[in-house]
């Protein structure tokens, strides 16, 4: 049995046992867990992991056992189990406590430590990503049409044939002033870009800004904003996550914005649900985090519920299906708003896929650490999306976009992968183009196409 | 004893990656959904993909005298999958294919690892239904449901698992494979083997294929929710509905404690102070018949001083069902140990049983709510306790014994649908008597003389017959 001489490593987590006790082992989590659906073992699903945690508390398993660590990290943190738990067990909190405890007991593995240091030191991260953008041709093959890259031999053994979005040599925030004005501005929001828009999908970020300015909202882009911290937090590095949360609170508060908008479920979920508990013991930043948790919104929620956005008149001719990103739906509870926006675009034929809220298998970095399970999960998502006959699969999270970029390519289902906000931006552009054509005495080539 | 040579043979049979030997994996098979039963870590977990592999595992276990604990999803409520002697947990999770849906013969043939809901998803495009629907329909496997003879919410009108099993392939303890039954409605060839293996809780053989009966899915339904100021009124309503020759698909009851807890938990708009609630759903293939049945229900509820709400849309139906769905989670939220019993009485004694359960809760100073399937007499007295409070757990155990005794006294049974497993084994003699226990042992000895199949479950050893 554990005692003072043989600590479990969970002594600093008094709430953990109570939360574990609330699990009645009914196994309802098995119905929705993507990892379990693929691996079919009890250790894959929340009930089994709770059993492992109980065994650690009882002294039957140890937190420094690599097999225990591996099993507890074999989780996408997609929060699907939370949605289906009749007892409302906070599996996400349990997993977080366990991972933090693992890091406290064993330290971070050197590779993670190096990467997380990069996230904490934005200049270093920036430099690495820029160098990566310049040097990507050495290691990766380019696919200019898809704006994607895949590893070249001899690096192909790493992730054979995997498609990654090309990192940009000109990250989003570098391209922009700190305040983007809007005609007849009614309101100011701060755009928390997150790393993915910044480094991989700057065009999507520009689309989001365009939609806001089209709706008379001026957009602050605080230069000092950093990673939201979710990537380090899910690996148990709570201290780095706290540091990042404090810096982000400072950066965003200075923007003078009434709301923070995000286009990424993980970033938005961090603002809504992670910063406040992380900083609960911090007398200065704790109240700030709580204040902003209610004022950080997904762009779709902001558009449909705060300002009542203007429906576009321009057309986007496409059959579109929508994938519910886990953190957007299960953490931020956003699922109706993006659909409302997509359905309101003239020309869009919206087709719901089977199991739209089944995880895509990305899990942030899960696809790197567990490529086989991740690909098996992705294959089901690709098949569900393809069965709708859609030409575009839309979503609200860049991590899912990266995963589905690879997935639709790998399984040759052929959908293009878009953030829903880009389709709205496109509809506004088509509207302006149509207006310009009507106003013009000599229609251009574009006008005839339209 | 599972040693390195046993592991090696298992790996040769199913492939190295389908034999789990790491302790962290084995720990996760040391429990199932049953509260208040011992945990035991198996020595190895093996996941076969075919009948031949199952036979290989049984032959190995027989030659080395190692116990086999078959397991589907581990959602049972009687400790049926706990590996009491260590040994081998045999998980059917990889044998999860629907082999055939035969719409002409109204049958489906499945491997044991198919989840019940997945079977229904496969037959729904044909307009068909596999009716047994335990609360775990989205997670429990067909193998587990057949082994436990699971019931569910549709038992009154549509029966339980045993009414749908038409044939099987079973691997016996001696390693032989036997097939019996099939797609014919009539079949009197040999003993009625299906009845032997349905509800055998993994103690007589390992099912590797199951053929079940399907029915055309009812096209129309009406859903109603009635509340009553006395339990007697609710009980008389149940009797009155049956007397009016209406057999509802669903006829569920919640007692006062459950209603209060559900309302505090889910805020679904239940009247506080109601003593009982009935959720009633009638269904059928003809709209006029369903309407007539609904009218009879409305009249019966009114005659027994009930207050009725009716659903006019799927959304309203969901609202009415919300109370019933929330019953277990709401009660479970009250404490860390949920003992969910399933003592069952003849339908005519439902009122007596509800009153008795409430009295037992008061007598032992326990939080006890009762809900369940009023139409078929299968109630779920649910006790919430703190497993760290020895005194409370002792009172809980005495209350459970009294609930069993009460059910038997009313002409009922220990278990309506959860099975005996290890949770109720010591009470078995009080219902079956010594001769019944001897019959159980004779069957077990005939099919599994070395007791390698799920030992320690369902069939009490001779000396432990009377606890």
User: What does the oligomeric state look like here?
Assistant: heterodimer
**Do you know the CATH topology of the largest domain in chain A?**
Rossmann fold
Strand percentage of chain A lies at 5-15%
Helical residue percent band of chain A = 40-55%
Label the structural class of chain B. Answer: alpha+beta
Pair with the biggest interface: A-B, 28 and 36 residues
Number of helices of chain B: 14
Q: Separation of termini of chain B?
A: 29 Å
Largest sheet of chain A: 5 strands, mixed
Q: What is the 3D shape of chain B?
A: globular
Largest beta sheet of chain A: what is the strand line-up? 4-6-5-7-8
The residue-averaged pLDDT of chain B reads: 95
The count of strands of chain B amounts to 18
Helix content range of chain B: 25-40%
Characterise the protein shown here.
The complex is a heterodimer of chains A (450) and B (467). Chain A has 450 residues and is an alpha/beta fold. Chain A folds into 4 domains: 14-106, Fumarate Reductase Iron-sulfur Protein, Chain B, domain 2; 111-165, no CATH class; 172-307, Rossmann fold; 318-430, 3-Layer(aba) Sandwich (Rossmann fold), CATH 3.40.50. Chain A contains 22 helices and 12 strands. Chain A has helices at 14-21, 34-39, 46-57, 66-73, 80-84, 91-106, 110-120, 122-139, 194-199, 202-214, 230-233, 238-253, 265-278, 285-293, 299-307, 326-331, 336-343, 366-369, 371-386, 398-410, 420-439, 445-449, and strands at residues 140-143, 148-151, 164-165, 179-180, 187-191, 217-220, 259-262, 296-298, 318-322, 348-350, 392-395, 416-419. Chain A has a 5-stranded mixed sheet, sandwiched between helices. A 4-stranded parallel sheet of chain A has the order 10-9-11-12, sandwiched between helices. In chain A, strands 1-2-3 form a 3-stranded antiparallel sheet. The mean pLDDT of chain A is 88. With 467 residues, chain B is an alpha+beta fold. Chain B has 4 domains: 4-91, Uridine Diphospho-n-acetylenolpyruvylglucosamine Reductase, domain 2 (2-Layer Sandwich); 98-216, Uridine Diphospho-n-acetylenolpyruvylglucosamine Reductase, domain 3 (2-Layer Sandwich), CATH 3.30.465.10; 218-326, Alpha-Beta Plaits (2-Layer Sandwich), CATH 3.30.70.2190; 425-460, Orthogonal Bundle (Vanillyl-alcohol Oxidase, Chain A, domain 4), CATH 1.10.45. Chain B has helices at residues 4-14, 23-27, 51-64, 116-123, 142-148, 155-158, 193-197, 231-243, 256-266, 287-303, 314-332, 350-363, 390-409, 428-447, and strands spanning 19-20, 44-46, 68-71, 88-91, 98-102, 107-110, 128-129, 165-172, 177-181, 205-213, 215-216, 220-228, 250-255, 276-284, 307-310, 337-340, 367-373, 378-385. In chain B, the strands form 4 sheets. In chain B, strands 15-12-14-13-17-18-16 form a 7-stranded antiparallel sheet, sandwiched between helices. In chain B, strands 5-6-10-8-9 form a 5-stranded antiparallel sheet. In chain B, a hairpin with a 4-residue loop joins β8 and β9. In chain B, α1 runs antiparallel to α3 (51-64), α8 runs antiparallel to α12 (350-363) and α9 crosses α11. The longest helix of chain B is centred in the last third of the chain and has 20 residues, at 390-409. The A-B interface holds A 21-22, 24-28, 30-31, 40-43, 47-49, 51-52, 55, 60-61, 65, 67-68, 71, 86-88 and B 20, 22-25, 27-35, 41, 45, 47, 73-75, 91, 93-94, 96, 115, 117, 136, 138-139, 328-329, 332-333, 336, 338, 387.
């Amino acid at each position: 049995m554990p005692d003072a001489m043989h600590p479990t490593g969970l002594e600093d987590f008094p709430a953990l046992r109570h939360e574990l006790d609330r699990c009645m082992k009914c196994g309802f989590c098995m119905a929705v867990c993507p990892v379990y659906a693929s691996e079919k073992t009890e250790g894959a699903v929340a009930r089994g992991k709770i059993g492992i945690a109980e065994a650690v508390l009882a002294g039957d398993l140890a937190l420094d056992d690599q097999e225990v660590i591996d099993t507890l990290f074999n989780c996408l943190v997609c929060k699907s189990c939370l949605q289906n738990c009749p007892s409302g067990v906070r599996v996400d909190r349990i997993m977080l406590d366990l991972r933090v405890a693992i890091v406290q007991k064993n330290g971070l593995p050197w590779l993670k430590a190096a990467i997380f240091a990069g996230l904490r030191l934005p200049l270093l991260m920036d430099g690495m990503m820029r160098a990566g953008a310049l040097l990507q041709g050495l290691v990766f093959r380019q696919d200019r049409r898809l704006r994607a890259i895949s590893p070249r031999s001899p690096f192909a053994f790493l992730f054979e044939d995997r498609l990654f979005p090309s990192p940009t040599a000109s990250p989003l925030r570098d391209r922009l002033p700190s305040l983007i004005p809007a005609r007849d501005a009614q309101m100011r929001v701060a755009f928390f870009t997150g790393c993915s828009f910044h480094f991989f999908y700057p065009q999507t970020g520009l689309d989001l800004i365009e939609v806001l300015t089209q709706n008379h909202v001026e957009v602050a882009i605080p230069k000092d904003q950093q990673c939201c911290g979710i990537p380090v937090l899910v690996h148990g590095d709570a201290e780095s996550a706290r540091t990042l949360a404090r810096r982000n609170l400072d950066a965003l508060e200075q923007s003078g914005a009434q709301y923070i908008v995000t286009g990424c479920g993980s970033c938005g979920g961090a603002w809504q649900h992670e910063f406040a508990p992380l900083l609960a013991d911090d007398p200065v930043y704790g109240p700030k985090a709580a204040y902003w948790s209610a004022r950080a919104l997904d762009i779709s929620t902001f558009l449909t519920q705060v300002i009542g956005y203007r429906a576009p008149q321009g057309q986007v001719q496409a059959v579109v299906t929508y994938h519910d990103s886990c953190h957007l739906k299960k953490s931020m509870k956003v699922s109706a708003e993006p659909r409302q926006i997509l359905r309101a675009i003239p020309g869009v034929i919206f087709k719901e896929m089977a199991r739209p809220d089944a995880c895509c298998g990305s899990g942030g970095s899960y696809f790197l650490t567990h490529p086989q399970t991740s690909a098996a999960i992705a294959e089901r998502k690709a098949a569900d999306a393809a069965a709708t006959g859609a030409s575009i699969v839309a979503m609200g999270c860049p991590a899912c976009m990266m995963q589905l970029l690879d997935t639709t390519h790998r399984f040759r289902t052929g959908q293009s992968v878009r953030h829903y906000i880009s389709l709205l931006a496109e509809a506004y552009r088509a509207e302006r183009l149509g207006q310009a054509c009507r106003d013009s005495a000599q229609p251009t080539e574009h006008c005839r196409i339209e | 004893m599972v040693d390195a040579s046993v592991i090696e043979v298992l790996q040769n049979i199913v492939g190295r990656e389908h034999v789990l030997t790491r302790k962290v994996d084995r720990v996760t098979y040391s429990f199932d959904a049953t509260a208040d039963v011992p945990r035991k870590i198996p020595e190895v977990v093996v996941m076969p993909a075919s009948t031949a592999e199952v036979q290989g595992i049984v032959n190995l276990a027989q030659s080395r005298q190692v116990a086999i604990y078959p397991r589907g999803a581990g959602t049972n409520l009687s400790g049926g999958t706990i590996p009491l002697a260590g040994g081998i947990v045999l998980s059917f999770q990889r044998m999860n294919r629907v082999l055939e849906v035969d719409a002409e013969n109204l049958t489906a043939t499945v491997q044991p690892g198919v989840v019940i809901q997945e079977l229904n998803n496969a037959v729904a495009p044909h307009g068909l239904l596999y009716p047994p629907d335990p609360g775990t329909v989205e997670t429990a496997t067909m193998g587990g449901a057949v082994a436990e003879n699971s019931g569910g919410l549709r038992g009154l009108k549509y029966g339980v698992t045993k009414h749908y099993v038409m044939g099987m392939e079973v691997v016996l303890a001696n390693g032989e494979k036997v097939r019996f039954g099939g797609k014919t409605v009539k079949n009197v060839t040999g003993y009625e083997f299906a009845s032997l293996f349905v509800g055998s809780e993994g103690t007589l053989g390992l099912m590797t294929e199951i053929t079940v009966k399907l029915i055309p899915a009812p096209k129309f339904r009406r859903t109603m929710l009635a509340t009553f100021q006395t339990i007697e009124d609710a009980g008389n309503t149940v009797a009155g509905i049956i007397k009016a020759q209406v057999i509802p698909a669903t006829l569920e009851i919640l007692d006062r404690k459950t209603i209060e807890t559900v309302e505090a938990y889910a805020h679904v708009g239940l009247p506080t102070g109601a003593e009982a609630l009935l959720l009633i759903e009638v269904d059928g293939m003809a709209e006029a018949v369903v309407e007539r049945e609904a009218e009879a229900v409305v009249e019966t509820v009114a005659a027994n001083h009930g207050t009725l709400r009716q659903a006019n849309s799927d959304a309203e139906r969901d609202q009415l069902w919300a109370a019933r769905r929330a019953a277990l989670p709401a009660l479970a939220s009250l404490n860390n140990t949920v003992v969910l019993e399933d003592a069952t009485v003849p339908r005519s004694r439902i009122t007596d049983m509800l009153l008795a359960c409430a009295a037992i809760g008061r007598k032992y100073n326990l939080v006890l709510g009762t809900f369940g399937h009023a139409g078929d007499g299968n109630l779920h007295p649910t006790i919430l306790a703190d497993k760290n409070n020895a005194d409370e757990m002792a009172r809980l155990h005495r209350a459970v014994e009294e609930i069993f005794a009460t059910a038997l006294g009313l002409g009922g049974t220990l278990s309506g649908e959860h099975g005996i497993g290890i949770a109720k084994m010591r009470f078995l003699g009080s219902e079956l008597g010594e001769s019944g226990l001897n019959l159980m042992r004779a069957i077990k000895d005939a099919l599994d003389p070395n007791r390698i199949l799920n030992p320690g479950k369902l069939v009490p050893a001779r000396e432990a017959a009377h606890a």
